C-alpha cells in the first residue's frame, strides 16, 4: 500500500543570469531587506552587484555579513535582532549553505521570540517567518530547495537542523554562472554533500515515490557531472546539471530526511568545525558497507544511476557496485579524507557516539539499518 504526503512550495528560479531578477523579486515581498551573507561575497563583487539591483528596484538594504561555515545559534540570533531593530520586512540569503541556512533562521527568529534551541529541539513551533529570498553561490546543501537551517550551539557543540514549514524561501535563485568561480575544494566537498543528500534520501525509511524520483535523478546528475566540473570548471553546461542536482538533493531531504552519514557527521563538525561535505566523505563508504544489505535493491538502482553496468548481476552484486562507484568517484575528486584529518582522535569517539545518539537520533533511525552504540563507534573507528 502506498501512502504519502508531498509538499514543497519553494519557488525555484533557475538559469544563467537569473541573479538579475533579485530586484523585482524583492519588490514583490518587501521594502527593506536584510542581506545575510559572508565576507566573501564582498570580495567576489557579488554583494555590491546584488545591492545595486535592490537599489534600482527601490528596496532598502541592511547588510549582515557575519556568516561563517557551520553557522552558530548565537550568530543567527544577532542577525534576527538586527532585522528587528532595522524593521526589515524581508531577508535575502546570499552565499553557500551557511549563508542560506543563516538567512532562513534569521527570518524565523525575527518573528519568533526566545531561544533558538527551543525551536530546534521541538519545545516550541513558531508562528511564521519573514519572507526569504535565497541566492545560492555553491552547489552543496540544496538549502534553496527546503525548509531546513542547520545550526551549531557553541556552548554544547550540538549541531542540528531547525526545520519549520514557515522557512521555505518565497523565491530561490539558482544561477549556474555564480558557481563557476568556486575553488576546487569548494566544488568537491559541497558537491559531494549534494550527492550524499540524494543518496541518503533515496534509501531513507521516510522516502516516498516523489522523493525517490527526485533523489535518483540527482544521483545520476551528480555522479556524471560533478567530476566534469571538477576537471573543467569553465564547462557551463556541466555546471547547469550540477546546480540542478544540488537543488534536487535539497528537495529530496526536505521530504525524506537524511540518514546515518549526516547523523554521524554533524557531531564531527559540531565538535571540530570540520567542513561538512569532507566529514561526510570520510564516513560515507564505511556507512554504505554497513547499510547496503538492508535495502540491496535500492543500492543496486543507485549503482545503475551512477553509471555502473549492472545488467545480469544479482541484486546483491549490483548493490556492491554502488560502493565501488562511490570509491571511484571520491578518488576522482581527490576527496578521500579520514576523520583524523579534522582532528578526530580515538578518545573523541565516545563523545561523538553519545552526541550522535542524543542530537541526531531521528536521522540515525531513518537509516535502513539502525546501528547500536557499539556499531556507531566501530564506524567512527573505521573512518579515522
Ligand atoms: Fe549535508
TrEMBL record:
Record key words, sorted: Oxidoreductase
ATP-binding recorded as keyword: no
Span of domain Fe-containing alcohol dehydrogenase-like C-terminal: 190-383
Domain Alcohol dehydrogenase iron-type/glycerol dehydrogenase GldA, first and last residues per copy: 9-176
Annotated InterPro entries: ADH_Fe/GldA, ADH_Fe_C, Alcohol_dehydrogenase_Fe
CDD domains: Fe-ADH-like
GO terms assigned for molecular function: alcohol dehydrogenase (NAD+) activity; metal ion binding
One Pfam family cited in the UniProt record for this chain: Fe-ADH
Record flagged with keyword Cytoplasm: no
PANTHER family with a match to the protein in the record: 3-DEOXY-ALPHA-D-MANNO-OCTULOSONATE 8-OXIDASE (PTHR11496:SF104), ALCOHOL DEHYDROGENASE (PTHR11496)
Protein name: Alcohol dehydrogenase iron-type
Amino acid at each position: 500500500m502506498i501512502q504519502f504526503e508531498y509538499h514543497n512550495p519553494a519557488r525555484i528560479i533557475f538559469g544563467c543570469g537569473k541573479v538579475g531578477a533579485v530586484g523585482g523579486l524583492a519588490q514583490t515581498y518587501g521594502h527593506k531587506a536584510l542581506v545575510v551573507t559572508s565576507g566573501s561575497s564582498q570580495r567576489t563583487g557579488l554583494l555590491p552587484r546584488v545591492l545595486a539591483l535592490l537599489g534600482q528596484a527601490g528596496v532598502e538594504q541592511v547588510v549582515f555579513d557575519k556568516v561563517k561555515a557551520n553557522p552558530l545559534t548565537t550568530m543567527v540570533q544577532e542577525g534576527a535582532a538586527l532585522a528587528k531593530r532595522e524593521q526589515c520586512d524581508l531577508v535575502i540569503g546570499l552565499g553557500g549553505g551557511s549563508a542560506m541556512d543563516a538567512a532562513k533562521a534569521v527570518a524565523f527568529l525575527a518573528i519568533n521570540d526566545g531561544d533558538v534551541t527551543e525551536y530546534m529541539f521541538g519545545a516550541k513551533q513558531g508562528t511564521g517567518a519573514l519572507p526569504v529570498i535565497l541566492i545560492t553561490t555553491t552547489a552543496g546543501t540544496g538549502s534553496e530547495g527546503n525548509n531546513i537551517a542547520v545550526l551549531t550551539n557553541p556552548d554544547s557543540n550540538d549541531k542540528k537542523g531547525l526545520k519549520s514549514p514557515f522557512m521555505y524561501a518565497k523565491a530561490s535563485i539558482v544561477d549556474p554562472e555564480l558557481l563557476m568561480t568556486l575553488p576546487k575544494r569548494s566544488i568537491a566537498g559541497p558537491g559531494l554533500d549534494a550527492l550524499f543528500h540524494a543518496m541518503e534520501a533515496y534509501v531513507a525509511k521516510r522516502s516516498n515515490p516523489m522523493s525517490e524520483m527526485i533523489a535518483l535523478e540527482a544521483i545520476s546528475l551528480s555522479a556524471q557531472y560533478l567530476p566534469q566540473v571538477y576537471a573543467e570548471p569553465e564547462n557551463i553546461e556541466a555546471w547547469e546539471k550540477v546546480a540542478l542536482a544540488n537543488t534536487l538533493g535539497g528537495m529530496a531531504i526536505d521530504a525524506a530526511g537524511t540518514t546515518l552519514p549526516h547523523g554521524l557527521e554533524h557531531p564531527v563538525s559540531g565538535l571540530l568545525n570540520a567542513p561538512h561535505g569532507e566529514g561526510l566523505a570520510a564516513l560515507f563508504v564505511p556507512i554504505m558497507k554497513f547499510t547496503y544489505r538492508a535495502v540491496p535493491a535500492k543500492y543496486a538502482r543507485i549503482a545503475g544511476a551512477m553509471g555502473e553496468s549492472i545488467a545480469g548481476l544479482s541484486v546483491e552484486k549490483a548493490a556492491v557496485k554502488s560502493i565501488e562507484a562511490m570509491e571511484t568517484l571520491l578518488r576522482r575528486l581527490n576527496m578521500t579524507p579520514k576523520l583524523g584529518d579534522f582532528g578526530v582522535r580515538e578518545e573523541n569517539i565516545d563523545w561523538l557516539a553519545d552526541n550522535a545518539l542524543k542530537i541526531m537520533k531521528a536521522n540515525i533511525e531513518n537509516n535502513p539499518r539502525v546501528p547500536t552504540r557499539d556499531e556507531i563507534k566501530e564506524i567512527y573507528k573505521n573512518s579515522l
